């Protein structure tokens, strides 16, 4: 089990699985571009208390496992990450531009899943059992 994080007023362990897809699944990500996308995500993550735990990619999408604080604004982080990485990748790797649809890099949508912890059934049973000893 991972160590719990904390701040002045709380203890927490919040982990997420983020999947971001290239617009129309264009296959433009190679090793070099993947490394740059990760760097951008980690740098921007510092402003949102987001820390990457794992990262990998396919030619048309990326998978990121990260942890965050309770006050992290995840949708703002994801939008900033997508915006900056789109702009910088197109600038630094101009060879991808012709492969994109109307120069859009990321699909507007994304998938964000919570992870870790006990299975839901275990949590439900634990909560149901509370107060039985009154």
Structure, explained:
- The chain has three helices and six strands.
- It is an alpha+beta fold and 134 residues long.
- The protein has a single domain, classed as Transposase IS200-like (Alpha-Beta Plaits).
- The strands form two sheets. The protein has a four-stranded antiparallel sheet, covered by helices on one side.
- Strand 1 (5-6) and strand 2 form a beta hairpin.
- Helix 1 runs antiparallel to helix 2 (74-92).
- The radius of gyration is 18 Å and the shape is elongated.
- The two termini are 31 Å apart.
Brief characterization of the structure:
The chain is an alpha+beta fold and 134 residues long.
Strand order of the largest sheet: 4-5-3-6
CATH class: Alpha Beta
The major β-sheet equals:
4 strands, antiparallel
Amino-to-carboxy terminus distance: 31 Å
Helix tally equals 3
Total strands: the figure is 6
State the domain count: 1
CATH superfamily: Transposase IS200-like
Please tell me what the overall shape is. elongated
Proportion of beta-strand residues: 25-35%
Uncertain spans, ≥5 residues at pLDDT below 50? none
Decide which structural class fits the backbone: alpha+beta
Helix content: 25-40%
* CATH topology category name: Alpha-Beta Plaits
Helix and strand run:
EEEHEEHEH
């Amino acid at each position: 089990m991972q160590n719990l994080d904390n701040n002045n007023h709380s203890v927490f362990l919040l982990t997420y699985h983020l999947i971001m897809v290239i617009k129309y699944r264009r296959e433009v990500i190679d090793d070099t571009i993947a490394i740059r996308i990760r760097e951008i995500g980690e740098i921007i993550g510092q402003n949102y208390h987001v820390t990457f735990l794992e990262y990998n990619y396919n030619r048309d999408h990326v998978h990121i496992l990260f942890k965050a604080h309770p006050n992290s604004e995840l949708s703002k982080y994801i939008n900033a990450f997508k915006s900056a990485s789109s702009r910088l990748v197109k600038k630094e790797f101009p060879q991808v531009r012709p492969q994109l649809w109307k120069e859009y890099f990321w699909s507007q949508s994304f998938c964000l899943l919570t992870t870790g912890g006990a299975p839901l059934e275990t949590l439900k049973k634990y909560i149901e059992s509370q107060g039985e000893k009154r």
